[in-house]
Amino acid sequence: MNTVRTRFAPSPTGFMHVGNLRTALYAWLLARSDKGSFVLRIEDTDQNRYVEGAVDIIYSTLKQAGIDHDEGPDNGGEYGPYIQSERKALYKEYAEKLVELGGAYYCFCEKCEEEIEPGEEENHEFSDGRCPGHCDELSACEVREKLAAGTPYVIRQRIDRSGSTKFNDTVFGEIEIENKVLDDQILLKQDGMPTYNFANVIDDHLMGITHVVRGCEYLSSTPKYNLLYQAFGWEIPTYVHLPLIMGKDAEGNVSKLSKRHGSVSFENLVEEGFLPEAIVNYIAFLGWNPKSDREIFSLAELAEAFSLAGLNKAPAVFDYTKLRWMNSEHLKMMAPEKFASIAKPFAGISGTVLESKWPVLAELLRSRIETLAEIPEKIAFFHQLPEFGPDMYNNKKSKCNPEVAKAVLEELIPEFAELDEFNADSVNPIIEGYAAAHEVKLGQPMWAVRISLSGLPATPGGPAEIMAVLGKEESMRRLNAGLAKLG
Q: Which SS3 state, helix, strand or coil, does residue 170 take?
């Protein structure tokens, strides 16, 4: 059995969509799970759609996601170059060879540059799928004359529209498409650049790609690819077409994932406070499952668990709620030092009094947030105590109300004032002692103190942790202010 070789071949047209990242991830997982090779190839045949800096985004995204490549533009390999625009002469050679083999023909029609985009179908003026001028009927002599005269041309695939083309897909099973619905797609443009549909076949063969992993939108184009393989006499690779990724709007309507559903790029999700490893973990489940109840995986663990048998053909719905939960689980597992480091830029505390207390504050946050972007809101009360009234002290569960809270604070404030250090070891015994002495649940004095310190019903950490971050002077100021609100 041949060693598995997969590839990821993105177009440098902007940000990395989660669908593209999933393709890269599955191709990488397939290669790694079989101890094979993973190739990165930049498909920039459509120069009109090229976006400056997009290649850097591809490199950056893959690096952050932990998806390394064995061969590519930056690290080379025996099948390079790995940027299609640098392989231009090679495509012309193979297009002309295909003409000789009878699998393609020269098209001299004036309107023949309606190029196909990756994942899209070509639009033709004629419903029969042939070139407008039926150049496939030109004699060899007529073709030579036009070439000698310098008449502009493209090279189109010659499709035999009799019968049908069958192929097996790992996910969707046997697919059969009647050849009469296929069009004579353009393979080589007038400028000598190939179309995506031609270049990907040539490159996949020459680079020894054994498994082609891509979105299911390419299913309808696959018969044309197979006819190219057959015309050259090449072995057809194993196809792994992935299901669509859908998005759900506020009304519950499901449609193909787009910006209207929320962030759809890896870059934006990271900016919104999602961990790269959590994004990768979640994307892995958009069309695959490990045949178990387990959901939290590292990238290395995904590579061990991955198998093609776990792929589904049903569309997957991108659930931002589930992603937030998964992100929170990864945050909880993170080492405190690492969390403090990656979370600090989101906190916005540089140059403030909280900066020196950040390690303590970070540990309070790690298990209490779903995304890093929540941090500023979670710690805002440390910067400035929000306005609140006596009613905030009401809490049925803790059996607390303004009158009870007043009694609690009047007794505890003098004891807190005698402390030299404010930390859990010094503060908690005082609060616990009050509860024991008055035979009430600990939640009652906790609530009264928490509200005075934060003005909020929920905080990262309890009263002792909050006081440790605020320090004695600010803690006492807030406690006394809270007591003053109670008359």
A: coil
